[in-house]
Amino acid sequence: MAAQNKGPGSKQPTINDVAALAGVSKKTVSRVINRSEFLTDKTRTAVEKAIEQLGFVPNPQARALAFRRNFLIALLHDNPNAQTVLNFQRGVLDAIKDSDLALLVRPVDRGSDKMLEDVRTFLEKQRPIGAMLLPPISENDDLAKLCEDLGVRYIRIGSARIDDAKHCISSNDREVVAEAVRGLVALGHRRIGFVRGPVGFRSAAEREEGFRAALAEAGLDLPAELYAPGNYRYTAGIEAGEALLSLSAPPTAVFCSNDEMAAGLMSVAHGKGIRVPGELSIIGFDDSPTATHIWPALSTVRWPIREMGIRAAQTLVPDFLSPGAKDDDDSNVLASTFVERQSVAPPPGR
Amino acid sequence: MAAQNKGPGSKQPTINDVAALAGVSKKTVSRVINRSEFLTDKTRTAVEKAIEQLGFVPNPQARALAFRRNFLIALLHDNPNAQTVLNFQRGVLDAIKDSDLALLVRPVDRGSDKMLEDVRTFLEKQRPIGAMLLPPISENDDLAKLCEDLGVRYIRIGSARIDDAKHCISSNDREVVAEAVRGLVALGHRRIGFVRGPVGFRSAAEREEGFRAALAEAGLDLPAELYAPGNYRYTAGIEAGEALLSLSAPPTAVFCSNDEMAAGLMSVAHGKGIRVPGELSIIGFDDSPTATHIWPALSTVRWPIREMGIRAAQTLVPDFLSPGAKDDDDSNVLASTFVERQSVAPPPGR
DNA sequence: GATTTAATGGTAACCGGTGTCAAGTGATGT
DNA sequence: ACATCACTTGACACCGGTTACCATTAAATC
C-alpha cells in the first residue's frame, strides 16, 4: 500500500518520476506497465518497486490518447425495471473488474424523437469501444446500425435472437414460458388467460408465442375474452384484472407477461375476494423484487440477467479481458428458468 | 447534421483537419470549441462551418490530458433499492446533460473488507473530478476521508446532515416521519408499532427518532413488544409481522422503516386474515415501486431522490455546469413528502 | 577471444488537444 | 501620416503516455 496521502495540491507522480527513481527510461516503465516480454527480472522488479513507492497509477487519458483508443464501454438502457438494469450492470462490472475498462451508463429516452440524435452525440463525444443495448431499446435496429456506422462495437440483449450471435445475447424465454404454461395445464387448468406486453416489443411477442405454443400442444384455444393487452405497467395489470376477473366464466389461471402486471392483476383479485392461488393461479415474468414482495409470492420466470452482463462483456471486448473466461458456448443463448412459488395451484374442484 | 457515415476504417477528423480546412491555426479552433471571447464573428463562423462540414467532435481524452483534469464524475453506491439508484442517476444525468461531463457508475461491496481498497483503486485509476456517495455507504466516514485524501471532490447523500452543506445533500426524513405518525395519532391510533431499519444506518436512526418524537408529542409510549428490529429486507418485514401480529394486543398501526419491510408485514397480515387498513394501518418509507405494487397500495414517504441527484451534481461540479441552475438555497436540504394511499385508516371501533 | 545474434534500453516523434506569450491587425487619436 | 492601443491570432512547448527505430549490451557460437 503505497498510500502516503497526497494533498489536493500535490501532483500525481508520472511515468517520468518512476523512470527517474528506478534509473531507467520511461519506455522501460511503459514496458513494465504493459507487461511486455523482453525484460530482465531485475529491471522489472526495480521498476515495480519504484511504482509501488511512488504510488504511481498510469493516467488513463494519456494512455487512451497514445493508444489511439480509449477504455470505455457504454451501457445504453431505457428500462422500466431498475433491478434488471442494475443486475446487468453488475454482471458487466464483474467481467471487466480486472481489466482497464470503465463503464459509462447512459439512460436514453425511448419515446423521444431525438433519441437517435442523442445517442449519436453521446457516442461521438465519448467514443466508447463498444455499446451494450438493453431491451427494449436493444430491439431498435436503427440504434444498432448507428453503432455500426460509427465504428462502435455493439451487443444487443434480447429475449430472442435479434441479431447474429456476435451481436446478441439472448435467452430462451419462449421455451420457458411454454414450460410454465404446460405446468398449468398439467395441474388441470383449462381456461387460461393471457396478459400481453406492449405491442412492438420483441419480448412481448416471444412470451405470447411461448404461451400459445403450449396451449396448442394441449389442444386448448385462447378465447378472445381471455386475452388482455398490456404495457408492462402495474396499471395495465389492474385493467386486465378488471376485464378478466369480471367475466361470467373467468379464467382459473392467468399468465402475465411481466411481474408488475401480475401484481396488478393479483391486487384486483384480492379486491374481489378471489383467493390466490386457490381460485386463481397467476404466473409472472422477470423475477423482479416485486415477485417476492407481494402475497402470495409470485411464480415467475427468472431471466439470467447478471450472467448476460458477464457474457455481453466477454463477447463485446474479449481482447480487453483476461482470457481465463473462455467459454466454448458461443451461441450466446442463456437459460431462463421457471421459479415456482406460491401463486400457482390446481384449479378449483380438482 | 454533418452525418456522413464513417466506415470503421476511416479516422475521426482532428482539430488539425478543421484548422486546415478553415485556414486558421489549431489554437483558434480550440478557442472556438471553448467559447473564448476575443474572436471575430468571421473567424468563428468559418471555423464552425469547418467543424460542421467535417463532423468534428473533440477527443475528450486529449482534452482531459491537455486540461490536466478529466471530465468524469463517479457515482458510488451499494444500494438494496435499485430504483433509488437509477432515479438518482437520472437526476445527475439531467444536470450534466449539456456539460462535457460523463458519469461513471460503480457499485461497491459494503460488506467486503477490501471495500475501501477497491474504491481507492478505482478512484486512483479513473481520477474522477468528484464522487457521489449514495446511502448507505455515504454514511461511511472513511470513504469521505479517502476522497478528501485523494483530492477527489465528494458529496454524500443522506437522510440527515451527515457532513457540512458543501458535502452533503440531505432530506428532512425525521420531520416527515413524525408528520406521518401524527396523522396516525389523529386518526385515533394509540398502539402503534415500529419496525426498525438496520443498526448502524443513519437513515434508520432518523426514522426512529421521528417516530419517537411524534409519539412523545402525543404522550404515547412505545412498549418493547411493539418495537421490532429489521434490516430493510422483505424477510425482516415478515418476521416483524409474525412477532407484532401474534401479540394478544396487537398494534392497530405499524410504521415500517421502508417499503419492503412494510410489504412483508402486510403479507403476514393477509396470511392471518387481518384486514388492511380496516384492522391494521401500515406506513412504509421510500415510495419504491413496491409501494404501489402491493394491495392495498402503501402510504409511504417519498424521498426526492431525482432532485437530490440534480442538486448533488450542481453542488459537486458547479464550475462545469451552465450557470443557469443557480439556486439560492444552499442548505442542500430537500423535502421528503408523505404520500397517502390506501394502507391507512382509523383503528377498528372508531 | 572474435564474431554473431538476440535481448534490452534509449531517443525522438506523436496522439489531439491547451497554455503562454509574442506578433499581427485595424481602429483611434494627434 | 504616424504612433498608440486594444483585440485577434499564431507559433511552440507541453500534458503523460505510446510506438518506431536505433543503439547498446549480454549471451551464444565458432
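The longest strand of chain B covers residues 72-77.
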